[in-house]
Amino acid sequence: MTGRLRLGVNIDHVATIRNARGGPHPDPVRAAQAAAAAGADGITAHLREDRRHITDTDIDRLTAEIALPLNLEMAATPEMLAIACRHRPHAACIVPERREERTTEGGLNAAGQIDSLRPIVARLSEAGIRVSLFIEPAPEQIEAAIRLAAPVVEFHTGRYAHADGEARAAELRRIADAAALATKNGIEPHAGHGLTYDNVAAVAAIPQLAELNIGHFLIGEAIFTGLDASVRRMRELMDEAR
Ligand code: PXP
After folding, report:
1. pLDDT of 121-173, one tens digit each?
2. Fewer Cβ neighbours under 10 Å: the N or C end of the chain?
3. What is the pTM of this model?
4. Domain boundaries of the chain, sorted by first residue
5. Where are the beta strands (DSSP E) in the chain?
6. What CATH code is assigned to 6-241?
């Protein structure tokens, strides 16, 4: 059975535009409210170490003012762990973070840092937060998620999104195989990064995937059509693919 695929709207880049001028506009919380009205199932925000887009105040306000579940993307650091445990978002997605990168360029190497991730996953879980690991769709990373008892993995779809032709088909198979493997082991698979109107359908058609998290394209498209229309169109494409 292929269930409804949830859409998490990542609002980071509303904050990117706001921060370009330093004032309050455009407000990411207003964007979250608009995304909710357009059919988003959740809101995703990445509190980066350098606070280049989302700020601590945004997280305070998203927690207090938004009815949808909040998925906090965070690096596996003591600072972020403390913030997550204080706010207790619905979910926390552990992402790799390098200061110099433009965006999260690849998945977390969970397999290579099981010992350091273990206490962080445990603390988040004890706080009642649903832990997700943002990993490449690779068996060794899923194996690490099993060992860490993470209930959710999110597959980084960047390689799929940036490939063409046969290479793209191969990346899609990797995601589909990984989704099947995660599900078989009781882990809920999600996916995201670089998804657009043009490439979302094939990913959305993977039956085991429960959630897609999409940001940059939706916010960019909103410049032309408005956020309500861009979220609604993505929702339609996801539903049609199921
Ligand atoms: N999921 C995770 C874990 C991410 O880090 C990002 C990018 O910040 C996304 C989804 C959304 O990617 P995009 O902005 O390319 O849609």
Report:
1. 999 999 999 999 999 999 999 999 999 999 999 999 999 999 999 999 999 99
2. N
3. 0.96
4. 6-241
5. 6-10, 42-46, 70-74, 91-94, 130-135, 152-156, 188-192, 211-214
6. 3.20.20.70
